[in-house]
Amino acid sequence: MDMKRAIETMEDIRLLVDTFYGKVRENPLIGPIFDSVIGDRWPVHLEKMYRFWQTVLFGEHTYYGAPFPPHAQLPVDRQHFDTWLGLWHTTLDQLFTGEKAAEAKWRGDKMAAMFLSKINYYRSRPSTPLS
Ligand code: HEM
Question: Which of 13, 45, 59, 110 has its CB surrounded by the most CB atoms within 10 Å?
Fold first, then answer.
């Protein structure tokens, strides 16, 4: 039986986020980077990410933050973002179908490209203040 369904409820968002970060933490390339920054604050990070994706996918504005700054100084480059995106797409394909699932992939792609270009920009100009 096909268990895939549309992303419709907060329960779906929590399943998506929990499954994704489960894969992230097991990944040898990016797992240790997340763990070294987040340490024992995983429950807080996951709660924040539920609100982030609720805001993006459902237009319910429960996330009030600045997504980029925590990434500015991370030791990451294209291969880390490619790994992140691979796990994001795999998780979505494993669990969900439909328009919101497609939108989640598209938003992940766009945010990863934007983060990578900002990281590279600041690396090339180390004295430029963050904005
Ligand atoms: C290799 C790629 C990535 C790494 C290693 C990474 C790592 C992290 C870490 C360690 C934090 C937590 C910072 C903290 O709480 O102290 C964080 C927060 C966050 N990440 Fe990422 N991330 C990556 C890619 C992405 C992408 C592509 C997105 C967008 C879809 C994203 C969205 C966010 C958001 C929204 C937060 C919360 C920011 C806030 O504090 O308000 N991340 N990330």
Answer: 13
